[in-house]
TrEMBL record:
The organism's place on the tree of life at top rank: Eukaryota
Protein encoded by which gene: LOC111101734
Cited InterPro entries: BTB/POZ_dom, SKP1/BTB/POZ_sf
Segments of this protein annotated with the region Disordered: 1-46
Full protein name: Uncharacterized protein LOC111101734
Species this chain originates from: Crassostrea virginica (Eastern oyster)
Length: 343
């Protein structure tokens, strides 16, 4: 009996050794055991750090020298005889974590194609001015300038007033004269009653409000003089934008757009009388498309099709839609040589 048990144990040992030496075969029905996860600490956003900035109770690991090289404020903080010089964690009260993290990212990556947006630009500009980081401030100012200049090229909308107003307040606060002037020029295109309704008068200084009113009076004078005197404005698009904005809260001017469109259409018909140029003709086509002035657009396209020298070399030609270019080409094919004119 004991001999049989010894033989059985010997057999189990042999089978065990055999199983250990056999290759492991994976079965599709067999669940794969998950690999143990390593408990690694999250890597800091900015490598080679030697100090922590604490914002809203959350850490931002940074390098003192990197910040000091970009900001005179950080340089004084970390190199002068301030308490922060010897602190491993520097609390920054009254700051928002998301804004400050983006701000530090721009300091570390000045050439990175980081997308500044309307939602972040004012906070980033405020931090750039406070910490005197010129590179970040320049990027924010460029963004504001681009946004305002782009707004001038599109039809005005009352919903844009709060954004333009916030830019004007920011420009006034940080003495950004060129940006402030762009904002004033845009706000001047809206009806005064609408501006008051949107709180513009209450949120800018008296000096800026006066500038807005004076600019608007100048625009109105020029606009009405051109319409009443049957003359073409130097900037047709700007005049149309002004007339368009006057319709908001100013019903007495509701027919002004029709009158001006009629004037511009006549300029296409009697181009010699108005001394119309190719550049002006392109402006009229672009304006007709943008403001959906179908009568003007048809008149301008008809004249363009008769111009033998109408082409891509003209300023703003690239702004004409492909549809209008096709209409010009189709009408040109139906003309004889005697129908062509020169501007």
């Amino acid at each position: 009996m004991m001999a049989r048990e010894r033989k059985h144990r010997k057999l189990e040992e042999v089978m065990s050794d055999s199983q250990e030496n056999e290759p492991y075969v994976y079965s599709e029905n067999q669940e794969e055991e998950p690999e143990p996860q390593s408990e690694e600490k999250p890597r800091p956003l900015f490598p080679q750090t030697d100090v922590i900035l604490e914002v809203e109770g959350r850490p931002i690991h940074v390098n003192k020298q990197t910040l000091a090289d970009s900001s005179p404020v950080f340089k004084r903080m970390f190199e002068s005889d301030f308490k922060e010089k010897h602190m491993s964690t520097v609390p920054l009260p009254d700051k928002k974590y998301e804004d400050f993290e983006k701000f530090v990212f721009l300091i570390y990556n000045p050439g990175h194609q980081f997308q500044i947006t309307n939602d972040t630009v004012l906070a980033l500009l405020s931090l750039a001015v406070e910490y005197q980081v010129t590179a970040v401030q320049n990027r924010c100012e460029s963004f504001l300038t681009s946004e305002l200049e782009q707004a001038k090229r599109h039809k005005m909308d009352p919903n844009d007033i709060p954004t333009v107003l916030s830019y004007a307040e920011c420009a006034e606060r940080y003495d950004l004269s060129s940006i402030l002037q762009l904002a004033v020029d845009l706000l001047a295109r809206y009806d005064v009653n609408l501006l008051k309704q949107e709180g513009v008068k209450d949120h800018v200084t008296g000096e800026v409000w006066t500038d807005i009113l004076e600019k608007r009076n100048s625009l109105l004078t020029t606009c009405l003089a051109n319409v009443a005197g049957n003359g073409l404005a130097a900037d047709v698009t700007a005049t149309l934008e002004l007339i368009s904005s006057m319709e908001y809260g100013s019903p007495v001017n509701s027919n002004l757009m029709e009158k001006y469109e009629s004037l511009l259409s006549n300029a296409c018909k009697y181009y010699n009388r108005y001394n119309l140029t190719l550049n002006q003709l392109v402006d009229l086509i672009v304006a007709g498309e943008r403001f959906k002035l179908l009568t003007l657009l048809s008149s301008a396209i008809e004249l363009a099709s008769k111009c033998a020298n109408f082409g891509s070399f003209i300023r703003r030609y690239h702004e004409i839609s492909d549809r209008s270019k096709l209409r010009i080409a189709e009408q040109k094919l139906r003309l004889s040589k005697s129908d062509f004119v020169h501007l």
